Amino acid sequence: MLMHLSVRNIALIDQINIDFSEGLNILTGETGAGKSIIIDAVNLVLGERADRDLIQTGKDYALVEALFDVTNLQQINGLLEEYGIESEEDETLLLMRELSVSGKNVCRINGRIVTLSVLKSVSRHLVDIHGQHQHQSLLSIEQHRELLDMLGGEAIAKTKEEVRHQYNRWKKIQKEIDKISGIGMDGERRKDILTYQINEIESVNLSPGEEEELVSERSKLANGEKIINILNSAYHDLYSGSNTYPSVSDLMARSSSDLMKIAELDTELSELSHRLESLQYQLEDIIFEIRDYRDSFHYDPYRLDEVDKRLDIIRALKRKYGSSISEIFLYLKNIKEELEVLENSQELLDELIKEEEKALSQLLETCGALSDLRKETAKLFEKELHSQLKELGMDKSSFSVNIERPNDILDTSKIKGRLTAKGYDSVEFMISTNPGEPVKPLSKIISGGEMSRIMLAFKTIFAQVDNIPTLIFDEIDVGIGGRIAHVVGEKMGSIAHSRQVICITHLPQIAAMADIHYKIEKRYIDQHTRTTVRKLDDSKRVEEIANMTGGKNLSKANLEHSIELINMAQEYKSKLV
Asked: Among 193, 244, 307, 368, which one has the highest count of C-beta atoms within 10 angstroms of its own C-beta?
């Protein structure tokens, strides 16, 4: 819920802070006191269009902050994680928006700067605002199907998911059909290219790791003379020696023999003797390995030419088909598969067409099941809405949900254009508020009072199925009064029993239902007109509601009537379960 709202430098507001509570929060005040400014501020922090004219004259910026309690709102936690925004340990969420006269527009969530689209993406799960002219979701035909589906609960949700899955599969098959159907002459040219590339690659007979082996071999061949010379020199020094100086092997053998003669005189000398003897054996192994390597090494200039030519061939293939032999093999695999598709395109096309027909048949069947569920839900909805409208003094109204199925379901060439991932139904809410008049689209209603009551009836029904925790009603009670005002107040109280409601009203019957009551006032402060907000205690509530009942002065009758309205509201709320 919305816990706290802070507004600074907006229109007539210097700074106000409002702490909201659970249940029904009522804001009242005289016309022109600044009630609409509060709604403008809320819209601003929720990400609606910003108008720099909202910035108070003489100020450089305007700032709105809204603190929400998002305990157990998993969709919010998921969005924060998606956008990389840290959640608060106390499960609160702080939205902030700042406008400056320079045009700068800063949005923050939990202190982190975000884009306006991210702010709106998060806020739409927190607050639903309804005003006298804010019924877009109700008037938008595109939303009617979604609202109806929401009422259908798990049954429609499950079937709708099946439709979405089958629709995506059907579209995927169609895409494959279009791809293969478009082969034609281009396909023949493509086959020639693929065949040439396959032959070019396979004719080389590449093997995994071959390039690395060739590079290593070439390095040895290119330095063949150097290798032989160094091996001969090492072998000579270690094993052969000359008349001028003995070999390392001979010197080590002589030293080892001398040490053995004195080894028995001292244990330390004995240890050195054994270590030298071990080194002598290791040296002999090294000498033999040098000799074997030298004898097996053949320097062949012709082989070097062969290696260079082979490497040139491999590099040429790499320039065309991949940065390594492994990538060339992968490319070869892919083009072989593509060639196979091209060579068997007609056979594959026939199979896909059969598969597409089967997928379409399954999709249409599931769409039909979804349509039937929508019709069942629509009947219940029509009955429930009529009951709500009757309570709101519109018992002569007629309401129906118009669900249109395509007339050409059996004509697959035509039905395909009507299919969507949400089925093939078009849904529109129809109403007649005058007896004898035919039902018309909901958008044709002109009366603001009628629209407000219809919207309230909708919200009363949808309050149990949507997931928006906070509802704001901005003077939707225009054009109603008397008994109906009592009914509207009770419905506000009923909705507020399961979620937070913030309502700006001019009707005492609705104000009496408040769990917390704020009064918005316009005052003359420091030679400027300013809007202020104050929370009313019980006695001030009685006075405010008495003032709302009419009359220039507070009379005993007005005060008694105010108390009676509050007592009636308390009695009604005590019966809510």
From this structure: 307
When mean pLDDT is compared across 1-10, 196-205, 475-484, the lowest value belongs to 475-484
CA distance 149 to 476: 26
Rounded Cα distance between 129 and 46, Å, is 10
Q: Distance from first CA to last CA of the chain, Å, rounded? A: 20
Cα–Cα distance measured from residue 324 to residue 327, given in angstroms and rounded to the nearest whole number: 5
Using one digit for the tens of pLDDT, what is the confidence trace for 385-429? 999 888 888 888 899 999 988 876 666 667 787 889 999 999 999
Q: Give the residue from 2, 15, 115, 106 showing the smallest Cα distance to 56.
A: 15
Side-chain-facing half-sphere of 240: CA atoms under 13 Å: 9
Q: Is the torsion defined by CA of 382, 386, 388, 394 positive or negative?
A: positive
Residue 547: CB atoms within 10 A of its CB come to 19
Element (H, E) at 94: strand 92-100
Give the integer Cα–Cα distance in Å for 145 and 428. 7
Mean of all residue pLDDT scores within the chain: 86
Please state the pTM of the whole predicted model.
0.63
Give the Å distances, CA to CA, from 128 to 136, 417, 471, 497, 502: 11, 34, 5, 16, 10
d(CA 18, CA 41): 12
SS3 517: strand
**pLDDT given for residue 552 in this prediction:** 64
